[in-house]
Amino acid sequence: MIDPVKLRQWLVKYQNPDSTHRDISNVVNHYQGLQPQQESYTFMDGTTMDLVNLTGTIPVSYKGSTYNIPICVWLIDTHPKNAPICYVKPTSDMSIKVSMFVDQNGKIYLPYLHDWVPGSSDLIGLIQVMIVTFGEQPPVFAKPKVPKSDEYPRFPYDSNTPYPVNIPHPPNHLGHLMPTSSGGYPPYPVSNSNAFPSFPPYPNNFPPFLPGGNNIIPPPVINSGTIKDEHIRESLLTAIEEKLLRRMKEQFLQNQAELQTLKKTQEELKQGKAKLDATLNRLTKEQKDLDKNITIMKDKEQELHTAIEKIGQQESIDVDDAVTTTAPLYKQLLNAFAEEAAHEDAIYYMGEALRCGVIDLDVFLRQVRSLSRKQFMLRALMQKCRQKAGLPV
After folding, report:
1. Which residues are in coiled coils (predicted)?
2. 321 or 132, which is more confident?
């Protein structure tokens, strides 16, 4: 089981500890054969660094059987910005099968690692690509174990072995191995670098059992110098199977890229939907407010029509009679205001008369001085009336 506290301590020096912790937890939950641990990693330039790696086995299906392939995934301190470094870790009874995906040191090369995209690439996708790729070209093969001819072969089994154990069987009277009838897993596939299998002319031992269902392995060729029909048929079947697996892998990678594109489009559509919903809610609120204002305006318009009809039916009234006050103080205030406004108009027209040359400057100054003095007294009177009436000054 993964220790979250210890894992957090390991990821302290990582640039993105939260996303790295989340990525590791997702892998461990899906593939329980992998467990995180911290070890020292040596780079090509000789520098070392304490990094977290995922070590264990992943299930790989090959020719109808499932095998546990041992791997080690090193996470750089910039994860998930940069792709991890991956290795195949064969045990003592395994050998590395060199291919375009695995070199002689066990380092793994995949297009998924080369085209690592931060934000969309993750460890789950990497492990899935490994499973598909290794299902087409296994990265390891089991070293053949030949039992002694003078003793009955033993059946080794170790519950701690993380991969299937090759269980040899005694030869039958036809001179070849019978398929296993036990419920155990078949062994790792034997290395085969060519599309057409080679058959040694003088075999000194019985070939190990190859995974492939209940088929019986044919007896070896005894220096015939020719290739029989069944050999050609087996080679053709192998070539077709490899071609189909290659196409399946290409289709898987294409579907995965399309899936990532669809996910991105889905997120954009969700964001667009949220914006549209917000705009729609705002427009709905504005529509309700507008309808409410229209109703109020119609009511006010109806009131105005009613008031106009009442005024039209009434007799004409004198403006002076219409303006009446409720108290002598208010009447004094009203008269002072009217008189002050009249003085303001008189001063204005005196200025117009001076401009037009109707009166001279001496007359203008004398009259304006007199009107201004009266206007000042009227304004003082209005201020006192307002104070007495309790009105704002």
Report:
1. 245-300
2. 132
Residues 217 and 197: beta-carbon distance below 8 Å = no
Give the Cα separation of 393 and 386 in Å (integer): 6
Q: How many residues does the chain have?
A: 393
Euclidean distance between CA atoms 28 and 123, whole angstroms: 10
CA 10-11-12 angle, to 5 degrees, is: 95
Mean per-residue pLDDT for 239-261? 89
CATH number of 4-141: 3.10.110.10
Contacts of 151 (CB under 8 A, 6+ apart): none
CA distance 32 to 28: 5
Phi, psi of 40, rounded to the nearest 5 degrees: -90, 130
Query: Phi and psi for 105 in degrees, rounded to 5?
Result: -90, 0
Look up residue 78 and give its amino acid.
Answer: T
Instruction: Give the tens place of pLDDT for each residue, 236-246.
Output: 888 888 889 88
In one-letter notation, the amino acid at residue 58 is I
Give the ranges where 314-360 is alpha helix by DSSP (H): 319-322, 328-356
Secondary structure of residue 60 in the 3-state scheme = strand
Could you tell me if 332 and 387 are in contact, meaning their C-beta atoms sit under 8 angstroms apart? no
What is the helix (H) or strand (E) element at residue 74, kind and residue range?
Answer: strand 65-75
- The CA distance from 353 to 140, in Å, is 117
Pairwise CA distance, residues 65 & 5, whole Å: 38
Judge if pTM exceeds 0.90: no
Cβ atoms of 166 and 142 closer than 8 Å: yes
**Residues 173-210 pLDDT 10s:** 333 333 333 333 344 444 443 333 333 333 333 334 33
- The label of the residue with tokens 């009436």 reads 389
Which is nearest to 330 in space by CA: 385, 258, 248? Answer: 385
**High-pLDDT (> 90) share of the chain, %:** 44
318-338 b/e (C-beta count within 10 Å ≥ 16 → b): eeeeeeeeeeeeeebbeebee
Q: Record the tokens describing residue 149, joined without a space.
A: 């001819």
How far is it, in rounded angstroms, from Cα 272 to Cα 264? Answer: 12
Enclosing H/E stretch for 371: helix 361-389
CB 37 within 8 A of CB 53: yes
With beta carbons less than 8 A apart as the criterion, state whether 152 and 175 touch: no
